[in-house]
Input
Amino acid sequence: MAKTRDKVISYRRAGWFVKDKKDRNLEDLVRKAHAKLKTVARRKFRRGDGQFLKGAYLKAAKNGGYFIHIVAETPGDLASTLAQKDENNAVSDVGTASPPAGTEFMDGDIFVYVNGNNVCMCSSVLRDGSVTTFCRDLFDRAKFGIEATQFDLMKIANVDKLKMIKAQGVKEIDIRASMYDATVSYLDRKDAAGALGVVGKHLTAIFGGEKQPKADNLSVTIAITADGRIKGKQKLGGERMETLANDIIDGDEDYRITTKHGQRITQSEIFVREKVKIDRRGKSVDRDKAWKKLEEFYNKLDAAGITAQ
Output
């Protein structure tokens, strides 16, 4: 069995839906709630399907921020089993097993690092939305008032995309368009601004001619990679990749830019995530090492200016 698991850690930011001008800070609320709700039983909340979410472990990080480990359990639930002796038979039935006395099987868990309104998380089975659900229930039980629950953890659609490109560089650009729209766009505006113009420029270079194309349903995707290949055709240096990425952002068309740090920028939002390896612990991963990876991830984002609000 492998000693590590491949995991994805992601970034969200708490957005508050309150009318007053008071600054809201998710980390501060988590700290205060933990001070009031000191036992796991006080941080245990029932979901609609009979499952419970529990704050199994909360603690302050030495260098700022707060760690949370949220687990899920369904009391009395059984685990599915496979009998090894059945491997010599034509068929194998699935059995069930009860948890050891005094325990419950864990349905899944999620590790969280909160710094201000910035949230980094790593999940096994549980959805990212479990963090929002848990925090809302936590603040409600701590009696912080309805305003403390009026938030959501959002992808950072409004972060400065040009700042991220400048800080991280460009690894790959995917531009998607129909051949008709792309070539018409380029012929109508020879400066080739925007994603369609860029696609059209390369299509006319491939197919030649100034003739207006016929409308059809042919779709094209041009992928420009960091080592400068447009599917093996043309080379671009790092500066030209950044220039092209900045040009595409000015357009209104469909694109995806992947930075050298693995972050994805699309027309609508930025998907900030990173793939890591973390030591395995049963069906989950080692808690302290997961938290360390999350804190390191946050520090890299902070150094690149991504966490600035």
User: Anything to note?
Assistant: The radius of gyration is 25 Å.
